[in-house]
Amino acid sequence: MVKGIIVHEVGGPEVLKWENIEVKEPREGEVKIRHMAVGINFVDVNYRKGLYSTKTPFIPGVEAAAVVTDVGPGLTGLQVGDRVAYAGPQGAYVEERIISADKLVPLPNSVGDVVAASIMIKGMTAQMLLRRVFKVKKGHKIFVHAAAGGVGSLLVQWGRSLGATVIAAVCNEEKAVQAKEDGADHVITYSQENFVDRVKEITEGAGVEVVYDAVGKDTLKGSLNCLGLRGCLVSYGQASGAPDPIPVSVLQPKSLFLTRPSLFHYIGTRDELLETAGELFAAVATGNVGWEGMMICQSKHFTW
């Protein structure tokens, strides 16, 4: 019998129940997969707590690496034994599941199961932010908030590999060490320095081309002041809470851009998904980004 974690009512970790589940046969356009490793994300915790609206019961988990064990009628392009990964469709906290074939991406031999499961969402988010929302080029100066977090760490590493000067902001000395090890050119510690003043000092008053802000309420207005002429503020998280409204008029003095992107708006087509994942896997294979510290769990070792 296939096992999985089911949430019947929202709450603390105690609502995660390890139970038998039924996995049917794949229909047209679907495949059956056996999970080899499953990623753990804060979004899973938020769903479990009831912070995001969803019907119960539900199975958490939004990314994993797997092996195809069966394919639906008439399906081409995938076959039994193929290694695959995905990000997005909830329901990953199980040993096996049925999933739409168009949500899967092939895994190259250069990327292991554990790495894929830990990096799909964070890595594709980093690719989106650096290569599509704002296309970072050699010589750009970029400012990364929460630089020791999952996405922040990848932005520092990948941004540096693209030839950008990376300014990283973190909350304590321990995380400052990590940001430096990831390749940040300059590290700002929130508790010790005013990040706006330091960015202006580092850039000699010119500001940066782009700010990646995952903090939200506590930093967004300051982030605008870190930008140079025609700079871009990318707000992609709100760890400190939802930001206060910003009048459009504050963008005018330096012709600034402000955006709040969602990964799933950038991988909405099959071609976009494959391109995004492909560039991520290439960056992993070449060592431009690492995955140390990513939270993963092999499916056979579920203990929650």
Automatic annotation (TrEMBL):
Residues 11-301 form the Enoyl reductase (ER) domain. Keywords: NADP, Oxidoreductase. Pfam families: ADH_N, ADH_zinc_N. It comes from the Eukaryota. The keyword tRNA processing does not apply. InterPro entries: ADH-like_C, ADH-like_N, ER, GroES-like_sf, NAD(P)-bd_dom_sf, QOR-like. SUPFAM superfamilies: GroES-like, NAD(P)-binding Rossmann-fold domains. The keyword Transferase does not apply. This is Enoyl reductase (ER) domain-containing protein. It comes from Sphagnum troendelagicum.
